[in-house]
Amino acid sequence: MTRRSFVAAALAFAGCARAGGVAPALKGNAAPGLTTEAASPATVTPITLTDAEWKKLLNPTAYHILREEGTERAYSGAHWDNHAEGVYVCAGCGLQLWSSADKFDSGTGWPSFTRPIRAEHVRVNLDSSYGMVREEAECARCGGHQGHVFDDGPKPTGRRWCINSEATVFVKRA
Ligand code: FE
User: Fold this and answer.
1) Which of 1, 42, 53, 170 has the greatest number of CB atoms lying within 10 Å of its CB?
2) Which pTM was predicted?
3) Above 50 in pLDDT, residue 20?
């Protein structure tokens, strides 16, 4: 796939994400394909759009979280209490980021995971906003902000990836 067609595919997906649905291609791929290595590439090719382009593609909530590092209110998102099996893909570009297999009830009101679905799919940056030094998690492909990661998580990793529901789209395992 050329870079241009890849971006076009990503844009098509993001347009669907705005409507609150999942792109047909993703639905058709939901299971078991989504859990295979082929659907979860080790090499991630970054995509870069302008702010104006993201604004057109995303609903205001997703734009605020993904592109302005916003945070949804605790217990307000769609996924904090979701116990269905499946994967959570980036609401900006559709990359698989989180799996229900790694989800746990943190009691915080945000979806929480012990690890990303693949280390290569999530980038961690130091965030020193609000007078705190935290580790910020973002999608490795589109740079969309996901949430923060802390060292008070359960086994096996001891990490708590605290993620905004609206930064993801849940794809239920069929
Ligand atoms: Fe992304």
Assistant:
1) 170
2) 0.79
3) no
